Amino acid sequence: MSSQIKKLHFSITLFASVLVLIIAGCKSTEQPHRETIDTGYYQNVLGSDLVRDQITRGFSSVRRIQNNVIYRTYQFDPDDLPRRSELDGIYFEDASARTQTDNHSTAGTATVLHNQGGRALMLTAAHTVVQPDTIWHYQPGTTHQPDPVVEAVSVQEALNQYIFSDGGIVMIELVSYNSRIDLALMITKEDVSGSDNLRQLETPGGIAEELKWGDVVFAMGYPRGVQMVSQGVASRSNHPIRSIILDLSINRGFSGGPAFAVRNDGGLEWIGVITSAMGDREFYLVPSPQLEEDFNPELPYRGETYISSSQRIFYGITNVVDIDEVRGFLEESRTELRRLGISLSSY
């Protein structure tokens, strides 16, 4: 019995010794603790303070713009639709079967190019600010005829255009535009104050032909009214106007926003203006626009139906008008700018 007790004691002693060795071995492999060095800020994707500062200052020059236009639409009797020539020189109200007003709003991004002497000049995409005075709605199938059949005509009754500054809303108006390259110049209707903080863009213009496949590009704008900066890479295109394509996932409201390429010294140069994204138009049926009662989805709708449409964006394919086209547009607008007392030479 005593021998068994001795063997048990020896086993316990041996187990304890092995356990001590295991624990000691674990401690011997422990890495020394490293203190975290707090740099005081995060790094951007390029690790460049210069890019960060240029983007931060840039948003004083890159602003959201809004356009609200009211049209009165004159609809004609569907059983007795007039030809286009029959409406020349007559009052649409006298010939229409009914009228209605429509309020259309568009938003975009503009870049301040000049702010000296009180009024600020800015560049944007033409399609965001150019609103036609009259819109003709032709009967399908007759659009390309010499004298098409008219279903309705919309006439502009009011137009309000403004930019959002630090001090609030500032009214603007059109100076010049070029629909071919989709660029427009706007100017504030009245002098702006220092509290508006509409600073002239300080980032220098770049060299479009030096932008290569895969170069890093930043864009600034207001998609859906949200102030954003986006980063992507450049592709080149043989298109005569939109020679730069970016893989940015932009949304409505980014049109007119500036694009900046990253130079090898780490800074930014203005390389172009975002004008459009690839997309498609979808058609669908909608209830009558004159529906006066709330639609109950649990009950069958038995009223008139109409065809409507909306644009679907192909995200990641963004078209840019390069800086050379921008310079050409500013040159062709020189006469109008001189009339306003504005001279642009820094881009």
Would you give an account of this structure?
The chain is α+β, with helices and mostly antiparallel strands. The chain has a single domain, classed as Beta Barrel (Thrombin, subunit H), CATH 2.40.10.120. Helix content is 16%, strand content 39%. It contains 5 helices and 13 strands. The strands form 2 sheets. It has a 6-stranded antiparallel β-barrel with strand order 1-2-3-7-6-5. A 6-stranded antiparallel beta barrel has the order 8-9-10-13-12-11. A hairpin with a 4-residue loop joins strand 2 and strand 3 (120-124).
Describe the structure concisely.
With 347 residues, this protein is α+β, with helices and mostly antiparallel strands. It contains five helices and 13 strands.
Q: Identify the CATH class.
A: Mainly Beta
Distance between the termini: 103 Å
**What is the total number of structural domains?**
1
Oligomer: single chain
Helix/sheet category: alpha+beta
- Give the C-alpha Rg: 32 Å
What fold name goes in the CATH topology slot? Thrombin, subunit H
Please give the order of strands in the largest beta sheet. 1-2-3-7-6-5
Q: Outline the biggest β-sheet.
A: 6 strands, antiparallel, barrel
Average pLDDT level: 83
Order of helices and strands: HHEHEEEEEEEEEEEEHH
Tell me the number of helical segments per DSSP (H or I, 4 or more residues long): 5
